[in-house]
Amino acid sequence: MTRTERLTRARRWVVKIGSALLTNNGQGLDEAAIGRWVAQMIELRRQGIELILVSSGAVAAGMRRLGWTQRPDSLSALQAAASVGQAALVQTYEEHFQRGGLHTGQILLTHEDLRKRGRYLNARGTLRTLVELGVVPIINENDTVATEEIRFGDNDTLAALVSNLVEADLLVILTDQQGLYEADPRRNPEARLLPEVVAGDPALEAMAGGAGSGISRGGMLTKVRAAGRAARSGTATLIASGHHPDVLLALREGAMLGTYFSPRLARLAARKQWLAGQLQVQGKLFLDAGAARVLREEGRSLLPVGVTRLEGNFQRGDLVACLDPEGREVARGLVNYDWQEAQQRLGRSSTEIAQRFGALDEPELVHRDNLVLSGH
Ligand SMILES: Nc1ncnc2c1ncn2[C@@H]1O[C@H](COP(=O)(O)OP(=O)(O)O)[C@@H](O)[C@H]1O
Ligand SMILES: N[C@@H](CCC(=O)OP(=O)(O)O)C(=O)O
């Protein structure tokens, strides 16, 4: 898929707005700029784009409220500033989104949350539900408990992890530069902008220097790495300047702005590669003939009703093999329940499960998004 095709067709976007942009030279939040980005995001939502926002700015907003002019070094002072500022940040977003009749939902995450499979699935479930409800999720690091992350001030990695989590089509990283240059343009004004690169190309890291302003920390290096990470879920990344007028709407129309990081693999191929790369399955699900057929032929999710028995002490989020009645592997996938919960649900219809275990239960044992047919 070309850059233009990707930009104009992308349905699920993760937009990351960095500290360098959000703050007026470290003087609190730039409310007017936030208003302009939100107006564009409201328009994107109106066009049917599923939108998830990753926003920095808590520390900067907190510093302002507390009357601090210098970013503190001590961890607890940073965390205190973030705690004060996070409230101001979401309040500002909520006010602006409300003008377009949209609500926001705050999600605070650490990298650790996304490494732990159970929490990963919970975060994904909440994000999906928010998006289905028409709410715009606004994600930031959970600075109260994060230590390394807040010191380093890196929401680029978080945005990439979120892109993997929701399998975004596009990750837009808005910053204070036009995109990735051959060298840091602050140090080398002659450096040229790179319009298109391949995500994960190791040569890019050498070009990306440290952070630019007093308040930001990550710099281009974390953005280049984030693009590589996002590509693992087939997500394309675009780094562009948040100062460009109507930048998000222009990108949606395929404008040649910023630096485009093409993911080498399409989403499904990236997922298949990841699943195929997992050597060990933690359990086995034995399907009846009907379930084996709908998985093979219709690419559907696996429901508990089609499973006759299981093997293995697997946990929620583990990789399991799905076998047909002859014992042949039909597919592999990430299971939504641990083995005991799965055992209780085997052979039961979704209605019965809802009655017995509550309507909030996920109806699928393995969702089709997390299922890859074997032998393909
Ligand atoms: N090769 C490069 N191309 C563009 N910017 C670069 C490069 N290397 C370093 N930078 C610096 O990275 C800064 C953006 O990163 P950062 O300050 O962390 O922003 P944010 O808060 O948006 O994450 C730019 O202001 C720029 O000075
Ligand atoms: N989570 C913190 C810091 C995150 C941060 O600054 O990251 P980045 O925008 O990538 O430089 C905050 O909201 O202030």
From TrEMBL:
<feature type="binding site">
    <location>
        <begin position="175"/>
        <end position="176"/>
    </location>
    <ligand>
        <name>ATP</name>
    </ligand>
</feature>
<feature type="binding site">
    <location>
        <position position="16"/>
    </location>
    <ligand>
        <name>ATP</name>
    </ligand>
</feature>
<dbReference type="Pfam" id="PF00696">
    <property type="entry name" value="AA_kinase"/>
</dbReference>
<dbReference type="Pfam" id="PF01472">
    <property type="entry name" value="PUA"/>
</dbReference>
<feature type="binding site">
    <location>
        <position position="56"/>
    </location>
    <ligand>
        <name>substrate</name>
    </ligand>
</feature>
<dbReference type="InterPro" id="IPR036393">
    <property type="entry name" value="AceGlu_kinase-like_sf"/>
</dbReference>
<dbReference type="InterPro" id="IPR002478">
    <property type="entry name" value="PUA"/>
</dbReference>
<keyword id="KW-0547">Nucleotide-binding</keyword>
<protein>
    <recommendedName>
        <fullName>Glutamate 5-kinase</fullName>
        <ecNumber>2.7.2.11</ecNumber>
    </recommendedName>
</protein>
<keyword id="KW-0808">Transferase</keyword>
<keyword id="KW-0641">Proline biosynthesis</keyword>
<comment type="pathway">
    <text>Amino-acid biosynthesis; L-proline biosynthesis; L-glutamate 5-semialdehyde from L-glutamate: step 1/2.</text>
</comment>
<feature type="binding site">
    <location>
        <position position="155"/>
    </location>
    <ligand>
        <name>substrate</name>
    </ligand>
</feature>
<dbReference type="InterPro" id="IPR001057">
    <property type="entry name" value="Glu/AcGlu_kinase"/>
</dbReference>
<dbReference type="InterPro" id="IPR001048">
    <property type="entry name" value="Asp/Glu/Uridylate_kinase"/>
</dbReference>
<keyword id="KW-0028">Amino-acid biosynthesis</keyword>
<keyword id="KW-0418">Kinase</keyword>
<dbReference type="InterPro" id="IPR019797">
    <property type="entry name" value="Glutamate_5-kinase_CS"/>
</dbReference>
<dbReference type="InterPro" id="IPR036974">
    <property type="entry name" value="PUA_sf"/>
</dbReference>
<comment type="function">
    <text>Catalyzes the transfer of a phosphate group to glutamate to form L-glutamate 5-phosphate.</text>
</comment>
<dbReference type="InterPro" id="IPR011529">
    <property type="entry name" value="Glu_5kinase"/>
</dbReference>
<feature type="binding site">
    <location>
        <position position="143"/>
    </location>
    <ligand>
        <name>substrate</name>
    </ligand>
</feature>
<dbReference type="GO" id="GO:0004349">
    <property type="term" value="F:glutamate 5-kinase activity"/>
</dbReference>
<keyword id="KW-0963">Cytoplasm</keyword>
<dbReference type="InterPro" id="IPR041739">
    <property type="entry name" value="G5K_ProB"/>
</dbReference>
<dbReference type="InterPro" id="IPR005715">
    <property type="entry name" value="Glu_5kinase/COase_Synthase"/>
</dbReference>
<dbReference type="InterPro" id="IPR015947">
    <property type="entry name" value="PUA-like_sf"/>
</dbReference>
<feature type="domain" description="PUA">
    <location>
        <begin position="283"/>
        <end position="366"/>
    </location>
</feature>
<comment type="similarity">
    <text>Belongs to the glutamate 5-kinase family.</text>
</comment>
<keyword id="KW-0067">ATP-binding</keyword>
